[in-house]
Each structure stands twice: as structure tokens, then as C-alpha cells.
Amino acid sequence: MNPELSLTTPALLFPAISLLMLAYTNRFVVLAQLIRDLHAQYMEKANEQLAGQIRNLQRRINIIRWMQIFGALSFFFCVASMFLIFSRLTIPAEVIFAGSLVLLLISLALLVYELQISVHALNIQLGKKDQYDLEGRK
């Protein structure tokens, strides 16, 4: 049994990819604003902690950029596969659709990686707060 790829199959990814791209863009905007704020603080009074936070955020911004690129390429391949299905070019449509799924998987893997970096940074920050609490400073 060979399931046939129809126009509705790639169309199912449209809302998912669109929502992912919106979430990625929101993450990017929030981090960009945080970088601007920290940079302004750094320019007033430079210290290594702020510099480290800015480096971490720059790393995360770069990962989000790649998440967006792979997500957009996935969307592009999805649309291309729909065009090929419409043109009755079934085998190329299946290959392009498979490529779309692979690109989406890469984008999602980068999301997990970026989340790990984010959580690690928060744990470091909370660890410093806990250290201050233990020393009697609040």
C-alpha cells in the first residue's frame, strides 16, 4: 500500500509552521530588547557579569536566527511540494515534502538547544541568588 501525497498533507503544516515562526520572532524580539538594555547598562558601568550575559544572549539570538531560517525553508519547501502536487509531479513533490519535514525537525532541534541554554543561564542566575540568600543578603 503506497499512500499518495495530496494537497492537504503539506497544507496541514501551514498553521504549525506559521505559529512556530511567530513564536521564534517573539523570542527574537524579546532577546534583542534585553541585549539593548544590558548593553546600555554595560556602557554605563562595564562589568564581566553583564558582558557574559550579553555574550549568552548573542549566542541565543544566533541560534534563533538559524531556527527562523530552517523554519522559513521548511515553509518554502512545503509550498513548493504543494505546487509540485498541483502540477502532478508526485515523486518530486514527495521528495520536497520530505525535505520540508527534515528542515522543520532541524528547526525544532535548534529550539530545544536554545531552550537548554536559556534554562542553564537562568539556573546560574538563580544559583547566585541562592548563594546570596545563604550568606544572609537579600
Short synopsis of the structure:
This protein has 138 residues and is mainly alpha-helical.
Q: In words, what does this structure look like?
A:
This protein has 4 helices and no strands. It has helices at 8-11, 13-44, 48-86, 90-134. Helix 2 (13-44) runs antiparallel to helix 3 and helix 3 packs antiparallel against helix 4. It is elongated and about 65 Å long. The model has no long low-confidence stretch (mean pLDDT 87).
What are the key terms here?
138 residues, mainly alpha, 0% strand, elongated
How widely separated are the two ends? Answer: 67 Å
Helix content: over 70%
What's the count of strands? 0
Order of helices and strands: HHHH
Please indicate the percent range of residues in DSSP E strands (runs of 2 or more): under 5%
The radius of gyration computed from the alpha-carbon positions, rounded to a whole number of angstroms, is 21 Å
Number of helices: 4
Which spans of ≥5 residues are poorly predicted at pLDDT below 50? none
Structural class assignment: mainly alpha
How are the SSEs placed, and which strands pair?
Layout: H1 8-11, H2 13-44, H3 48-86, H4 90-134
